[in-house]
Design brief:
With 135 residues, the chain is mainly beta. The protein has three helices and ten strands. Strands 8-1-2-10-9 form a five-stranded mixed β-sheet. A five-stranded mixed β-sheet has the order 3-6-7-5-4.
Length: 135
């Protein structure tokens, strides 16, 4: 199985490469009001609209190393589209299919937490939306 590996706050994560449309950089992200803190905004890429998520905030409440040169992972699955910005996009990594059940790791023995687009989507849906409590 091939995965796209990325890191957030020193921890390594992986997405099944079949769900990754491409990795891009230097694109304009448009802010959207009343969204969770991890939702940076929206981007329009090749005729498709993606929600852009800061992986650092989503996974551990730490802002990722977002700058104008950040790489953005574009995911597409079923009818959903999502873009995530990690600290670093490590690249394409091949893992043994058995590793999915036993815990995946790189050739250097570093543990990779495998995540699915659906698990990211579910996590996002549990977040609060809107301006929050107004005094």
């Amino acid at each position: 199985m091939e995965i796209v590996a990325f890191s957030v706050d020193g921890r390594l994560y992986g997405l099944d490469a079949q769900h990754v449309n491409r990795v891009i950089e230097n694109v304009k992200i448009f802010s959207a009001p009343f969204m969770p803190k991890c939702h940076i905004g929206l981007l329009f890429y090749r005729g498709e609209l993606y929600d852009v998520i800061d992986a650092g905030i989503l996974f551990n409440q730490k802002i990722s190393l977002v700058d104008s040169h950040s790489r953005i992972i574009l995911m597409k699955w079923n009818r959903n589209k999502l873009a995530i910005i990690p600290d670093v996009v490590v690249g394409l990594v091949r893992i043994d299919d058995q590793a999915i059940h036993q815990g995946a790791s790189t050739a250097h023995g570093q543990k990779i937490d495998l995540i699915t687009p659906d698990s990211l989507w579910t996590r996002l849906l549990k977040l609060s939306y809107g301006p929050g409590k107004i005094s």
